[in-house]
């Protein structure tokens, strides 16, 4: 009787497991399908797309590319602009956040605790809340259509300081700092040569997220950039909705694919770190 | 000795935090204060004249809160789309968390599933929005093709003409982009629970349901609140998807609060003042939510340490006064 009970338990477990696998595979397909259709349709002609769905790619990739580039879509410029902004913002964010975190952890100064409290307080201020004033301010400086207002604000990234501080508290040993001092290293040089390498794992994780967030950002660039040659990829995506592509389905899908490919490459190369990073940070950028 | 060296070095603490403070003052604080100021003025037009404070400084705010149908609608849409996205998002994330952390099930391929579930989150929201509007295209589009293939409908359906469907799709895109993220955070939360508790439960003969509802769920309370509030603040900023999906159509049913700010200030009549006032209203909502989160995440250990310290100091003081402190 006992073994019978165990057997029925095992059967129940197997049924459970099967249901769970079916749900998980369904969700996985749901994640893949839209992008699959996007990539496949990027290689199909308009008439093929009008005939219905297809699982396998066709041969009209070059024709679609020609049509796409013929109109206002310029993926190279968009890519370069997006890259400059995302890379610049990432460097600013991780370097200065590490510096700030080190200042918070390594030194004992009067306003340290209040400053940390302040960082937590401003962590969740949405950029949209200050957009109107920010735009007017940049307009007066003559900084619209410039990449700097999209890069420099990253110097003050409270959420990343918060994360770096948590990491540094666990990773920093004061003996290292003290011995650097004995060797006559200046405080700033100590940070650059000794502390920053120690923080590299945290820096790398955060860098991925800051880069992706800035690469994907639409709101601020849309407000600040009005010249075509300054457009980022997300702004160019909005051009694909316009009338000029009304019937060129293949090129729309191709344009979308081109904006997504760099992210897919980053994701599949670094997915392990990204998955770990989400769990570690649990702070939304 | 150590204390003295720290005193000497303390100025570096200020110095190293200075770039952050400067960037914050210039790019965050000043723009916010300036936005607040603009909200009380008559600033509008493509190239606005020097702004003046209105005779009734609260005019813009009153207009938004009591008269402006569009703003009210945008707030309602934002709330509605967020709720319809968040409840199933948290539900599914919890379910997957329960499955993935269940030791008895021993699911295989968890790593691959996690990577695939999180994947939509990393792709540009704008790209996804335009992609979905292409997928639901009328009269011929992939979803319509699928409907006909499975025989669900003989005629082409114009999905995006219907208010409820349009809102539903926007909510679905949000849900689809974020449930993997929420799941990863919840799983991390479960892995942080002391395994001894689970062992004790197993010895006491608790089944999967009991373990989940009596141990896992209560332990995840703080993390779930954290997810709730960050998601709410993220929801307030919802812009890319509704903007590029249908630009707020049909009938403004997918028109969100941030789209309101954008289109008031940077499109059409360039009503910077009204957009600024709307920003401030959103800011207050976000600030209230953040304050609650701040209260939630406050450093409990540090607070306890401080209390302890105070108690010891008090006790020492009492002892030094020579009184009998305990009976």
TrEMBL record, chain A:
Asked whether the UniProt record includes Transport among its keywords, one would answer: yes
Q: Does the keyword Transmembrane apply?
A: yes
Q: Name one Pfam family in it.
A: BPD_transp_1
Span-the-membrane segments of this chain are 20-39, 79-103, 115-138, 150-174, 194-215, 250-270
Q: Which UniProt keywords apply?
A: Cell membrane, Membrane, Sugar transport, Transmembrane, Transmembrane helix, Transport
Q: In what way does this protein cross or attach to the membrane?
A: Multi-pass membrane protein
Xref: InterPro entries? MetI-like (IPR000515), MetI-like_sf (IPR035906)
Identify the PROSITE patterns for this entry.
Answer: ABC_TM1 (PS50928)
Chief subcellular site?
Answer: membrane
- GO annotation (BP), single: transmembrane transport
As for subcellular location, the record says:
Cell membrane
> According to its record, what are the GO cellular component terms?
plasma membrane
Q: What residue stretches are annotated with the ABC transmembrane type-1 domain?
A: 79-270
Q: What family is it from?
A: Belongs to the binding-protein-dependent transport system permease family.
What is the name listed in the Swiss-Prot or TrEMBL entry for this protein? Answer: ABC-type sugar transport system, permease component
Annotated source species: Thermobacillus composti (strain DSM 18247 / JCM 13945 / KWC4)
UniProtKB/TrEMBL annotation, chain B:
- Entry-linked InterPro entries: ABC_transporter_permease, MetI-like, MetI-like_sf
Matching Pfam families: BPD_transp_1
* Source superkingdom: Bacteria
The record lists the membrane-crossing segments as: 12-33, 79-101, 122-141, 176-198, 219-239, 275-297
Chief localisation class: membrane
Give the record's membrane topology.
Multi-pass membrane protein
* Compartments where found: Cell membrane
Instruction: Give every ABC transmembrane type-1 domain span.
Output: 71-293
> Mind listing the UniProt keywords for this protein, alphabetically?
Cell membrane, Membrane, Transmembrane, Transmembrane helix, Transport
What's the family? Belongs to the binding-protein-dependent transport system permease family.
Q: In its UniProt entry, what is this protein called?
A: Lactose transport system permease protein LacF
Cite the source lineage: Bacteria, Bacillati, Bacillota, Bacilli, Bacillales
